[in-house]
């Protein structure tokens, strides 16, 4: 079973322990409701009473409580949102999702191998044909984007329109890049949708730079407000550095795209310079996670610290692999595009070794998830029932499904975005 991610705030609000029985939770609710009911306090405890009702609605429902214990309030909210969208939440739907992920990874792996063969063997295959697996993989997101646009325009939902436009910009940036490889478009035009997509993504980050995003109200009704200035400053510095490196990368890339090396007498811009902001950003991230791993190794907190250390170690390997790939691409581009014959020219197969390893690992993991979907779904969402719960229900196995058709009580908030990952990075540094 996955470890708990909840903060225990609902249990604190109900004044019960995390292992409290349903009867204890019910008694605690009735006791607190008599104290906090607005009719008995002239309306001064309306907010506390509302929080109490929300906490009881989650903790009194077995499935919601298990989900809260594993994923917190966001997990409960997420599943409810899926239910409102008529998305089935059950082992069969989870197995189908695993199958889709498995097929997507397989298509991406096939796409990578086709590009490697096309480059290393200098075949005359046309680039649009080489990218057929990617076109297949992008078909569902494209249809989803069109559906979101239509629904957003019809219902005047600005968020749906923005998400649809973002997806279409992403798909369009890939299509124009392939057109640039074919020579159908000039490189400045071919790269424009990618820059537009990045600009739209940056707009999502701006609202999260306000200090109010780091102000937290206690959920126990005490009204206390906390704000970590150090975490906020680190978060802002990380965002500014990352976005500055990205802007510098796209600027240098566009400058190189506007050069016509074959006709111009000026020496073309080195791709080492073009990729230097990207390498610097990835290098700093890898260094930060390496330092965090070393710091965690000296702290004896086996639960949360061990989990954070494993995550940082994994991210260190990922960022280091991305640095390797960026360096190989820069070296190969100098030889193939700039025609600098005296430089190092790695094969495409060698350049993408880390990506191949990642795709193969993800594919094997998705196959295992598909084969064990029922057990994984049960462990992830509901956990393993304790012996008392099994005895009360007369269950025969601790992993027997308890909800095969979803629940109307499930709710969802948002999927953590990139700004939340940066916040986590700031927490790790602190």
């Amino acid at each position: 079973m996955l470890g708990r991610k909840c903060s225990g705030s609902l249990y604190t609000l109900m004044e019960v322990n995390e292992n409290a029985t349903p009867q204890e939770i019910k008694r605690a609710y009735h006791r607190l409701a008599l104290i906090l009911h607005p009719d008995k306090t002239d309306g001064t405890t309306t907010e506390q009473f509302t929080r109490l009702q929300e906490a009881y609605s989650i903790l009194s429902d077995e499935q919601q409580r298990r989900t809260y214990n594993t994923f917190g309030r966001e997990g409960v909210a997420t599943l409810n949102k899926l239910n409102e969208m008529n998305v089935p939440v059950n082992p069969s739907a989870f197995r189908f999702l695993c199958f889709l992920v498995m097929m997507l990874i397989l298509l991406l792996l096939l796409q990578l191998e086709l590009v490697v063969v096309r480059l290393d063997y200098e075949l005359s295959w046309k680039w649009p044909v080489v990218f057929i697996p990617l076109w297949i993989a992008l078909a569902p997101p494209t249809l989803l984007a069109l559906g979101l646009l239509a629904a957003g325009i019809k219902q005047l939902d600005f968020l749906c329109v923005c998400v649809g436009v973002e997806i279409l910009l992403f798909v369009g940036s890939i299509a124009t890049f392939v057109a640039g490889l074919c020579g159908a478009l000039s490189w400045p035009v071919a790269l424009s949708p990618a820059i537009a997509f990045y600009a739209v993504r940056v707009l999502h980050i701006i609202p999260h730079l306000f200090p109010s995003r780091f102000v937290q109200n206690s959920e126990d009704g005490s009204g206390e407000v906390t704000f970590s200035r150090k975490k906020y400053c680190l978060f802002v510095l990380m965002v500014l550095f990352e976005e500055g490196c990205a802007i510098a990368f796209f600027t240098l890339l566009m400058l190189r795209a506007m050069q016509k090396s074959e006709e111009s007498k000026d020496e073309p811009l080195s791709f080492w310079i073009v990729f230097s902001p990207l390498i610097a950003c990835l290098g700093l991230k890898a260094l930060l996670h390496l330092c965090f791993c070393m710091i965690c190794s000296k702290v004896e907190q086996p639960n949360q610290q061990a989990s954070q250390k494993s995550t940082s170690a994994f991210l260190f390997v990922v960022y280091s692999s991305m640095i390797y790939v960026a360096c190989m691409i820069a070296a190969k581009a100098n030889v193939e595009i700039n025609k600098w014959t005296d430089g190092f020219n790695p094969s495409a197969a060698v350049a993408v070794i880390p990506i191949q390893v990642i795709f193969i690992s993800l594919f094997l993991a998705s196959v295992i998830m598909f084969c064990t979907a029922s057990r994984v779904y049960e462990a992830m969402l509901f956990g393993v029932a304790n012996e008392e719960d099994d005895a009360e229900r007369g269950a025969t196995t601790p992993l027997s499904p308890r909800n095969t058709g979803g629940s109307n009580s499930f709710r969802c908030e948002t999927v953590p975005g990139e700004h939340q990952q940066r916040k986590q990075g700031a927490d790790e540094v602190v």
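Confidence is low (pLDDT under 50) at residues 1-5, 384-417. The beta strands are 215-217, 225-227.
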